[in-house]
């Protein structure tokens, strides 16, 4: 839903002071992020950086943020708004810290714990400090993630707005409840305390900024920043031709059946306003591909940001000209008890489809589709080196789409995950009973075009444990990354267990499959779509890709009709 933001500041402040305060707020958020990452106990946070932070004003509008998952940054204010609506404005007390993970509030899966607290300066409620991070295990029916859940209750502990600190003191029974319901209770406790430290850092830094400059000056700078952003976005939208634009596509399945699930996007541009209408998307699925409406809105904001205002950080003036319409009871507007573990699969498709819908009228900003999903591999068991349980749960990078002046990026994380990183081989082999046999680009996987799509990657995992449970969530094989303007589609993903052996098995999704010592799991992610007619690709670029191993000799002939020059 859009909000009304004044396009002119309500009080006068000089631009130099405004920029100093803008930088101070974003620097405070950067320090929050550093506190969280450096204090966390699990690699999913400190190595992969599956987290985000934000500072909000007293009206729940973004003041400052740090690099993080875009799909988180668009809706951290939801939890503070929800808590205030539930308990009233007077609920905010100095020294309190809260936590929530409910999928129907925050929109994501139950692993994503949002920790937040009010900021008081001179006794006045002046804002909120927030962070969200992925916990390894929250007590679902399977270790880590559940790929075949049929309701939210199978996915783990569901937490509404609870205090974990009151007046600066831990609430021990709540901490015990949260950590006792994780199979990895010790690291869960450590990650909780890291998030509390992050929130306290934000509370301290925002309080110091207000003390230094004063409430009135900080508020004036905020209004000027918000107004500047709103004016900029209005001007960009006004340059897009009015009209209705539509695109649709499918994810492969909901994890519990073979039927594809449709995401349908209608974009309406009217003057300085944009509407992204998602109401024609499929009803809630039986499997875990649903998401709360707040997260669908966040995904729409991600693609809006990418197309309309990609270079500036999000603030409270962002999205003031955007309305997102979500239908309750749909896959993108899930209600209890719909499972939501893999909420991000339709959202990645939503982002690509919105770009596809608008590509004819903003070709200079539109790229072909990306590989599109997080491509999750999970392995759980007991590490023979330590006798302790282990869980690796990691996304895999893939290829991004080409655009009108350049090739797509090879081996990049998907759009909803932003600054998230895949797990380094050194970390995997040190912390888990796994030997990595291969990690490299998957040649020929990007769609052909005048500018080719980015290539996916190939990873080979050799198990060095007697028994483990394998879970997979690889997507977008039915709707692989499409090309634009004559560019070709990309190669879809594939996963093979024991390739070339008698017991070879090919799959994309599986829940808790028993694997053993010596098994080799090979994952290959999809590429990005191509842009433009492949006949127009320059010989120099083809030969560069051959030299760099991004294109095979056979692929050069098949995709581009390339023939080597006689020596």
Number of helices: 13
Low-confidence stretches: none
Lateral arrangement of strands in the main beta sheet: 2-1-5-4-3-6-7
State mean pLDDT (0 to 100 scale).
95
* Intertermini distance: 63 Å
> Roughly how much helix do the residues carry, as a percent range?
25-40%
The best one-word shape is: globular
* Proportion of residues in β-strands: 15-25%
| Rg from Cα | 24 Å
Architecture blueprint of SSEs:
Blueprint: H1 15-39, H2 43-46, E1 51-57, E2 62-65, H3 70-73, H4 77-87, E3 97-100, H5 103-106, E4 112-121, E5 124-134, E6 162-166, E7 169-170, H6 172-180, H7 185-213, H8 215-238, E8 243-251, E9 261-270, E10 273-277, H9 293-308, E11 322-325, H10 344-358, E12 376-382, E13 389-394, H11 425-431, E14 434-441, E15 457-463, E16 467-473, E17 494-497, E18 505-507, E19 509-516, E20 520-524, H12 539-548, H13 553-560
Parallel strand pairs: 10-11
Antiparallel strand pairs: 1-2, 1-5, 3-4, 3-6, 4-5, 6-7, 8-9, 9-10, 12-13, 12-16, 14-15, 15-20, 16-19, 17-18, 17-20
Helix pairs in contact: 1-7, 1-8, 6-7, 7-8, 9-10
